[in-house]
């Protein structure tokens, strides 16, 4: 075991990391509570491009905080994003994190209809979860395409869309579709994002309500 | 449901994405099988910095493939990385993915000794898993510091270290420590990395053995 003086403990590392990140963001005018979300995304990626890419609809973070305080559930498009969300904090307020991607009925229906599992997952969430829903999408542009269709069909379930899929095909367009959807959003414009970014944004919201 | 012509299915998206990535890597001379690992990391992050950062010890990928073919287990430092690994492919060759971070005995021992859970997790893996081990570290620099100590103590368990923690404190130094450790490594030099990158590297190796 190395001598303890050789390293710092996780919370100390995190605090020092956020100070370093803040020192790099001096020219960025983004106010709180959005600023804390941006800093956590940079903490998760070490990628300052998010200072340019991360886009919030009006009061998106405040809307997300109200939703979470009132027990909203979170729906993800990967088990990885779901694994990264601090579910014990979410549960304090009555919420649960869901990912339906690996459900056998989702796979079967997607194969039968010739659509993606992500699309069927979004439909299943809106159909089966009788709650206000926050969607945290870090992987599948088709999840965003489907959410846009669900909103246009009149469903009130999606109350906030965290739209941060990563990739080179369909991703940029799907994110712009969400920006135009009328639903509150937090979107990383461009190609970047990921399941880690989706989870980080959820946790940035949760930590504004309660930090274990 | 949007008309099917509006989007592509995941495998088609992936193939087209890899073609786009390759078109951006024309000036990068990295040969196979390392090149496929780099491309999957960029596919996961949309971040071409990895073309500069990702560093392989001699034959690291070939060594990883041999380990996986012979049933090596993978140990991660986050449940998120563990969730992202294609465990059904790993299982075809006899391997299992482990993350001990949430184990109550790990938390208790870390608190008692005043060290990080990541450190105790690494010790637990080497003590309890009677196998060749691949470590995939995407978060905790202390996991790498501890692995270096374990190797220096003479343990033969760590056969390949995927060292890609992300962050601003201790991270750069911990990665350089692994590069000097004498154990085969795949390391993202600098601040960047993450649980998603750790999982992507594992999957890049697995997909060279079997693609579902």
Would you give an account of this structure?
2 copies of one chain form a homodimer. Chain A is 52% helix and 12% strand. In chain A, strand 4, helix 9 and strand 5 (158-163) form a beta-alpha-beta unit. Chain A contains 11 helices and 6 strands. The longest helix of chain A is centred in the N-terminal third of the chain and has 15 residues, at 10-24. Chain A is α/β, with parallel strands linked by helices. The interface between A and B is large, with 48 and 48 residues.
What are the main properties of this structure?
homodimer, 212 residues, alpha/beta, 6-stranded mixed sheet, 11 helices, 12% strand
Span between N and C termini of chain A? 27 Å
Largest sheet of chain A: 6 strands, mixed
Tell me the overall shape of chain A: globular
* Residues in helices of chain A, as a percent range: 40-55%
**Strand residue percentage of chain A:** 5-15%
Order of helices and strands of chain A: HHHEHEHHEHHEHEHEH
Largest interface by residue count? A-B, 48 and 48 residues
Please list the strands of the largest sheet of chain A in the order they lie side by side.
1-6-5-4-2-3
Give average pLDDT of chain A, whole number: 95
Based on secondary structure, the structural category of chain A is alpha/beta
Helical segment count of chain A: 11
């Amino acid at each position: 075991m190395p001598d303890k003086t050789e390293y710092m403990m996780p919370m100390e590392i995190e605090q020092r990391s956020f100070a370093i990140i803040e020192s790099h963001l001096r020219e960025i005018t983004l106010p709180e509570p959005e600023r804390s979300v941006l800093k956590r995304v940079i903490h998760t990626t070490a990628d300052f491009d998010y200072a340019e890419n991360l886009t919030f609809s009006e009061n998106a973070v405040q809307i997300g905080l109200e939703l979470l305080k009132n027990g909203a559930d979170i729906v993800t498009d990967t088990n990885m994003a779901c694994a990264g969300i601090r579910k014990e904090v979410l549960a304090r307020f009555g919420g649960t994190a869901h990912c339906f991607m690996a459900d056998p009925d989702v796979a079967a229906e997607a194969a039968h209809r010739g659509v993606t599992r992500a699309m069927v997952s979004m439909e299943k969430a809106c159909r089966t979860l009788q709650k206000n829903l926050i969607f945290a999408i870090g992987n599948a542009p088709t999840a965003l395409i489907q959410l846009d269709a669900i909103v246009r069909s009149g469903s009130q379930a999606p109350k906030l869309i965290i739209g941060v899929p990563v990739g080179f095909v369909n991703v940029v367009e799907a994110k712009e579709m969400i920006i135009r959807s009328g639903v509150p959003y937090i979107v990383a414009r461009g190609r970047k994002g990921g399941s880690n970014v989706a989870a980080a944004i959820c946790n940035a919201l949760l930590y504004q309500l309660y930090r274990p």
